[in-house]
Write a structure and sequence with these properties.
mainly alpha, Four Helix Bundle (Hemerythrin (Met), subunit A), 2 domains, about 75% helix, globular
Length: about 250
């Protein structure tokens, strides 16, 4: 019976992987906007497989492993190929290396996550989740590319740095909150987090996706700022403890 239940979340995970493959196919045919939409659809399936695993009570190590393999395809290889064929190919070998960071560091991030995983419910992720990196890339392409075929001016100049930044954030130790579960208990436990995500979704919907990249950027930058503030507070705490240590004159 457990095997039957496990099929349900695995199906969503496979659909995630399939969307990643379709995105790569679309890029190879020069259909960059369609490729971006398939990555976003992969993100939907990636969210649903976890939900279905909890509903069917079929969370397992197998689910974790196949989910990571799917993520490497949909949120590592697919966006890497997208940015390379859309713009970074113009930089030659340098552009190829920069593009590859999304899949290489994304794979490292997933491997680290699986090794450090204890239990299946998490309050936060250590490092930017690979789906968030891929979705940020897609929103950038949808917002700033010209007719979904090329970048011009400042948007093209900034793209390599955005790719590098997102890649490094994935293997960083910066904490990013997990998506809140839709339950009264979770809403009461994290009211600010839930409200923030709720209003973020409303902004994206009412702007018809035009502000999606900016909303997502706030989420990413907030994690960085919170991490920096935490480091400062930690240093101040250490200095205070040192000052409080009694000194004795010989």
């Amino acid at each position: 019976m457990m095997i039957t239940r496990a099929v349900v979340p695995t199906l969503f995970t496979v659909l995630n992987m399939f969307c990643g493959f379709l995105s790569i196919v679309q890029v190879s045919e020069g259909k960059f906007i369609e490729a971006g939409y398939f990555i976003l659809l992969a993100g939907v399936f990636d969210s649903l497989d976890g939900v279905m695993a909890r509903l069917t009570q079929s969370t397992s190590r197998f689910g974790v492993e196949i989910d990571s393999l799917s993520d490497v395809v949909s949120f590592g290889a697919a966006p890497a190929f997208l940015v390379y064929k859309l713009h970074l190919f113009q930089l030659g070998t340098v552009g190829l290396i920069i593009s590859s960071l999304l899949v290489i560091l994304g794979g490292i991030r997933l491997a680290r996550f699986n090794v450090q995983l204890v239990g299946f419910d998490k309050e936060y992720f250590r490092g930017l989740p690979i789906p968030s990196s891929a979705i940020a890339i897609v929103f950038y392409v949808l917002t700033f590319s010209i007719d979904g075929n090329k970048f011009e001016g400042f948007s093209g100049t900034v793209l390599p740095y955005i790719v590098i930044a997102l890649s490094l954030l994935m293997v960083s130790t910066i904490k990013y909150d997990t998506l809140p579960k839709l339950s009264k208990k979770e809403i009461a436990k994290h009211p600010i987090r839930f409200s923030s995500y709720f209003f973020a979704v409303l902004i994206v919907v009412f702007t018809k996706g035009e502000w999606a990249f900016y909303v997502f950027s706030v989420f990413i930058v907030f994690g960085i700022l919170r991490h920096m503030i935490g480091l400062v507070k930690h240093e101040e705490k250490i200095e205070t403890e040192i000052e409080d240590v009694p000194s004795y004159d010989l």
